[in-house]
Here is the input.
Amino acid sequence: MALCFFLLTDFGLSDPYVGQMKAAIRSRVPEAGFLDLSHGVRPHNIVQAAFFLASSWPYLPRGSTGLAVVDPGVGTSRSILLLRQDERSVLAPDNGLIGLLLDSRPGCRVWRMHSLPPEQAVSSTFHGRDVFAPLACQLAQGEDPSLLGEPMDPAICWNTPGSRPHLEGNRVQAGVVHVDRFGNCVLNIPESDWRDYFRGRRGVALLEPVSRSLAMVRSYSDIPADGVGLLPGSQGYLELAVDRASCAKRLGLRSGDRVVLRLT
Here is the structure.
């Protein structure tokens, strides 16, 4: 059976970086199979990458090994982490990329990886190919993580500021973690965690960055004409949307923007 590697990067597809990373894996594991989760993360956007990883985790094949390489600190002293949960593994820099996954999935185990003796020269600007790929191959082939690193408390992993919503009174300060191609604005509010809080509320309004009322709905078609809806999206997070138009354009929102909601 082919070993499955899933890849999440901000490399895009116009350069040879993704192909070189796959080549580095295939040269060590000829039977490797690949699942490209996304290479379209906005450059250096750790929060967006964290959302892509956490929302996709339940659908990844059991036994798969991932390389999540959105790594503005490449070449510095930042650590490389291994996270394992529910028979899935992922390597990621310790820069907050696994933060949403740690928040949303119980039973995560984390190791801080040791530096390995290089098989060849290691570029200080491309650890995805020269460091992540060899580590991923060893782990996928059954190497004990404790021989490649040391266990660590997930609570001390670095997290991206603003990656979690904040409740104060009847106001929720949240962030836009992703704007999809339809213009829907996904918030960093897990629907499962906040379902009971929103249930029974008579209304909700957006206070920042613009002021307007929101309709609490279950589907896009329930959003009133010319209105903006707040609804649980398919990725497990609440999102702001309009029906058959771009909410991002209507509200002037982008990935990384801060929003404040008021509930009554």
In short: The two ends are 54 Å apart (CA to CA).
